Amino acid sequence: MKDLKRITFAPGLMGGQACIRGMRIPVSLVVNLVANGMGVEEIIKEYPDLEPDDIKEALQYASWLTREELHPASV
Fold this sequence. Notes:
Layout: E1 7-8, E2 19-20, H1 27-35, H2 40-46, H3 52-65
Antiparallel strand pairs: 1-2
Helix pairs in contact: 1-3
């Protein structure tokens, strides 16, 4: 995985979900907002603690998670 500095994991925070910079803002929330049409400026207006680079890195992390590899089963 790429060296992501803004994505954090803590067992006691949001159940260990990937969050933005140790805040109670999960990556999944940010990705969901983008997927539903919110722009960076709108997201930051709703969540003023976020920075544009937080959103960019959340999307990079989500992209990395969805890389799929197919490996044919040996018969």
